[in-house]
Fold this sequence. Notes:
Oligomer: homodimer
Protein name (chains A, B): Conserved protein
Number of helices of chain A: 13
Helix content of chain A: 25-40%
Domain NrpR regulatory (chains A, B): 80-315
Radius of gyration of chain A: 22 Å
Order of helices and strands of chain A: HHHEEHHHEHEEHEEHHEHEEHEEH
Distance between the termini of chain A: 52 Å
Organism (chains A, B): Thermodesulfovibrio yellowstonii (strain ATCC 51303 / DSM 11347 / YP87)
Domain Ribonuclease R winged-helix (chains A, B): 7-71
Pfam families (chains A, B): NRD1_2 (PF01995), WHD_RNase_R (PF08461)
Strand content of chain A: 25-35%
Amino acid sequence: MNRTLLSILKILSKENKIIGSKEIAKKLKMYGVNLSERTVRYHLKILDERGLTKVYGKEGRRITERGRKELETASTVEKVGFIINKIETLSYLSDFDINAMKGRLILNITYIHKNKFRKALKAMENVFTSPYVMSDRILVLEKDSENILVPEDHVCIGTVCSVTLNAILLKHGIPIISRFGGVLEIREGESYRFGALISYDGTSLDPLEIFIRGKMTDVLGTIKNGFGRVLASFREVPIVCLDKVKEIYSIMQKRGFQGIMMFGEPNQPLLDIPVGMDRVGIIVVGGLNPIAAIEENNIQTYTTAISVLYDCRELVVFEEVLEKFK
Amino acid sequence: MNRTLLSILKILSKENKIIGSKEIAKKLKMYGVNLSERTVRYHLKILDERGLTKVYGKEGRRITERGRKELETASTVEKVGFIINKIETLSYLSDFDINAMKGRLILNITYIHKNKFRKALKAMENVFTSPYVMSDRILVLEKDSENILVPEDHVCIGTVCSVTLNAILLKHGIPIISRFGGVLEIREGESYRFGALISYDGTSLDPLEIFIRGKMTDVLGTIKNGFGRVLASFREVPIVCLDKVKEIYSIMQKRGFQGIMMFGEPNQPLLDIPVGMDRVGIIVVGGLNPIAAIEENNIQTYTTAISVLYDCRELVVFEEVLEKFK
């Protein structure tokens, strides 16, 4: 199924009522599909023939049950929107206000079998007192919440995604670009070099999920010995924004956030990675380092990075979680 | 260690004799490092101080044992050259002649424990009679060969890498570009869509290795039922070359090669993936599909994709291997 058909189906699914081809043509423009009403009707006929939509006289069309199913399976195509789109969309949609500590920030979602949950907390304990974590807070759900379903016998952990930094900066008018997800080698407690890199605009799978799955991290070893490999990402901001970024970051730190490991020099490569013209590189910790630590303890996790917008007031300081589940 | 120091060390390691700074400066240009002799001497002093090189009077310098070790650990930095560089380098270096069936083609290298080797052959059997393989030939090494070391108790399998197609086309003056490695969904035996994609010019890890490790393939299911997921890649050629590509591909087929699953239309997206201006998309099977089938049987493999140039005459028709190890 091509993108046009898919976009029409999506519109019909979202509207969930009978709408006409004129209305559809108008809404299609929002998806970047610019078609005449006539051409839309041609595509609608294809959908009719496949039983994915149904005509209701002159009023227009409605999506069928089969159409919904098709849309569901077609959502993998959506995935082939690259990760950069997910980053940009959630950064834009987040309404998190760092000054008021209000609004929805961006979480990575992980499910763990409840029998393993205490062991998982133990594995994360040292990470939450290390520099390799984004925030001192975490979401823990034992039951479904408004927008997260928790599978039976599982606990859901939400870790603050480092894309939250993008959201905060964007709200201050700073256009930050996420370039690479990587595995950062640490030596004597210092960032040394990237051992692996995947560009966010060239992958449909999240790089940090790939590195965790590939068992390429050693977060716990890094914390213990000062030598190891942690998840990190490479970002860029225009030189002109650098002071403002540092200013906002100091506010973030007062609110229990951290995560920026290194600022580069204007127009200079940072850890051998070149930056764009008139830009500065920034190295940010991966929000998934606590989850990497869990996997390093051979506890299986089911993780989706950059997953969901969530009300920041639902998050709890990690120490309190630890206390509660002692 | 920065790229300049690394490049100097590499030159000294390759030469493996005493050479002067003038000579080094000349060779550095080959690595894209353009420095005066004076600057090279400055860098050499740094290397001396770190004990990585040693001065021999006026003649010049030589790499030390410690220098070699540093180079070895630093080779991860090399990896952060993206996979596209590996593809282009090996395509260029390959001297495989499809007409004469002579020269070195490009192999993926996989090690399997010898106890699992028979089971692995069994797993690959159906792949080699399917459309999802590059060639009917395979390399099997039970002992070290000239340029491949085989670890104790292991067998080495070399599968023809699909980059061999690039090499063959390049020799005919066709500039083929490898864009994405992907997991291709097959329905009723037909290519349906990509379920995951990673751009070759944005990753330091091979995409197909990632997909195998992530257990994202179902090569055996695809062969059995016509529905499933196989490894594939997306390439592009200029429209003007299309007829020549088809002509060369028909010669390849007569020589026991295959692998092109789909040709796109000029300037048209192929399976929803847009192509560059005045280009045609081509979908090529992943050379690692036989290895994916082994992993689907829960046999552990150690694989390096796009690994080595190897004399094509050392490869054997898969059926003969099967016969030999019956």
